[in-house]
Design a protein that fits this description.
This protein is α+β, with helices and mostly antiparallel strands. It has 13 helices and 19 strands. Helix content is 32%, strand content 23%. The chain has an eight-stranded antiparallel sheet, sandwiched between helices. A five-stranded antiparallel sheet has the order 5-6-10-8-9. Bound molecules: flavin-adenine dinucleotide.
Length: 476
Amino acid sequence: MKDRFLYRLESLLDKGSLWVGSNVPGKYYTDETGEVGELEGVVLPSSVEEVRAFIQVAYEEEIPITPRGGGSGLRRGAVPSKGSFVLSLEKLNKIIDLDKVNYIAKVQPGVITAHLHRAAQEEGLYYPIDSLSSEISVLGGDVAENAHGLHGVRYGELRDYIRRLDFILPTGEIAHTGAVPMKSVSGYDMNKLFIGSKGTLGIFTEITLKLLPQPETTRTLVAGFRYLKEAAAAASAIITHLLTPSALEILDKSFIQFLQKNYRDSLPALPIPKGEALLLVEVDGFEDSAKQQLQRVENICQNHKVLEMLGDLSQDQEQRFWNARKLWSYKVLNSRRNQTSRPKISPEEDRSSVLFLSFFIPPADLGKAIEGLESILNQVPGSTTLFGHAGEGNLHAAVSFPSNQDFKFVVPSVCRQVAEIVYKFQGLYAKEYFIGMSPISTALSQRISPGLQEVFSQFKKKVDPRNILNPDKAWI
Ligand SMILES: Cc1cc2nc3c(=O)[nH]c(=O)nc-3n(C[C@H](O)[C@H](O)[C@H](O)COP(=O)(O)OP(=O)(O)OC[C@H]3O[C@@H](n4cnc5c(N)ncnc54)[C@H](O)[C@@H]3O)c2cc1C
């Protein structure tokens, strides 16, 4: 059957759009988790019609498909399922339209997120969803994961910006949800069913997004504190004083060390405030408003034991702080994004393993919660860091285990203790990610009730009757 499938593919696609065997570059076997999958080949269509034709043939021959965007995902969504063909959307990378009058962008799924940011900015428009992986992730992957990022505190998440989705169903049928106008439907919001579906329900081929006017100005403040709990208390106060900065990040000494190593002695050197913890704050809006907001943030930090503030940075310096924030994320995750040869089957061999936790604490309680979280992490062997999008209360803890360590017993205990603190403050324990190691059950991540799970299983069966689309990824 595979030979017949390949024969049919060859008649559908150009030579450069189909790779099999040793021609397949290493990166297609994995994503940022480092887990290595098994694939039969990679298909890189150049048009929506080629995507449709490929899916139709795969459906007829019952060949599993693993959709792939930028491969920056942390949930194994683009790690190939056994026997699958990876469907990479990277050649569908056109910004089809930027409508300055109606604030709309139409893009193909392979557009790199940061390219859309820059193209929108050139037109005086603003696309605020800025995940820390935006230089490599693409819009199709972002929709499949409902990405969010630095500006969530003010601008929300990707699902808030989707107007219309065009996609191909696993049977090869062309479909869409939503519409371009702002208010176009009543009843069930079908867009939301497909956003975050991790490539299990359909392949996005065109995405229509709402944009905003570019804010007149953005200003950044970097504030250094002696302790992380003091930075957290200041972050809580910023939110509870009804200020909505466009970004509010809390970072511990691991980030400061990264700055010191890579930016302090660079030319021109970047000033780094005193302290063991930082708040990185961005405000935006009209010039006067941004100035006032910044002043109020400074006053709040003054009242919360700030050691030093940098509020008069040049645009270049501000940009370098935000770039550093993004680059440091790759370091925390021990990224292997430059993988060019086929990865080793056992990634643990050459990469330390990272347990990465994501959870939400009500922003007003950050100061109180952080002390407890720090005391848990201080007892864990291996290097740890605690940081996050403080404005949304979305914190992350990362524990990097040395390669010689048996962490299988430590992981569930760390997750359980963190979850206890999160629940104590009525927060949400969202998920643990296993980077460079096999997943370990902690029985803690948010689970859907069995009844609802059954409803969605039936829905998946209806949409994908032969279970070819990312077959083993529905509940990751
Ligand atoms: C350093 C780093 C920082 C990160 N920071 C953030 C952050 O701030 N916020 C955040 O939300 N996430 C973050 N992530 C996670 C990740 O980057 C995002 O989830 C991103 O949206 C994934 O996009 P991608 O194009 O790389 O998708 P991939 O990893 O290629 O795929 C992700 C999922 O989408 C599916 N998919 C891809 N394209 C399509 C398509 N056209 N149609 C249907 N399904 C498709 C895949 O099958 C897979 O299930 C970060 C990751 C890293 C490594």
